[in-house]
Amino acid sequence: MAHSGGFMQRIMIVSDSHRRHGNLAEAIYNEQPFDLLIHLGDIEGEEDIIQELAGGETIMVPGNNDFFSPLPREREIELAGKKVLLTHGHYYYVSLDLQTLREECIARGIDIVMFGHTHRPLIQIEDELTFINPGSISYPRQADKRCTYIMLEIDDNGEMSFNLKYV
Ligand SMILES: [Mn+2]
């Protein structure tokens, strides 16, 4: 039966908090309630604090500054039938360009890749692959130097919309 205004999944995507979680706490407060928090690395030992702030389901992957993290180095999850890779990005030289990451994702049948590391936000939707980088919630490097994150909304038809947000 068709219906409207029903189920909507909200996912908060952040990265590179680097042990400075004030902005993250504020953003979480502003966005709650959401269904899932994804942190794409450079957490620097604050996994427990982030988990507590989120107060619900979280998925985190380690960054290049998370040397002794027990987290698995990357994760593959499914969202609305799409195969999603969560990775910090440094294994794929994303500071240089997206080519290595693109080849890896296409070889693995990934539909959406979410990464961080560059501290520069990106929402790039291509035919084969969508690139999502929420930028840094603490230390932005893009021209406007604003701390960023991304909210993903998935409606009951599986339609996704990615929205860049500022703290
Ligand atoms: Mn970083």
Tally of contiguous helical segments: 3
Order of strands in the sheet with most strands: 3-2-1-9-10
The overall pLDDT average reads 95
Q: What is the name of the CATH class?
A: Alpha Beta
CATH architecture: 4-Layer Sandwich
Terminus-to-terminus distance: 39 Å
Under CATH, the homologous superfamily reads Metallo-dependent phosphatases
The small-molecule ligands in this entry are:
manganese (II) ion
> What would you call the shape?
globular
Unreliable segments (pLDDT under 50, ≥5 consecutive)? Answer: none
Radius of gyration: 15 Å
Biggest sheet: strands, sense, closure? Answer: 5 strands, mixed
Order of helices and strands: EHEHEEEHEEEEE
CATH fold label:
Purple Acid Phosphatase, chain A, domain 2
Number of strands: 10
Count of folded domains: 1
Helix percentage range: 10-25%
Q: Name the beta content range.
A: 25-35%
Which structural category do the helix and sheet elements fall into? alpha/beta
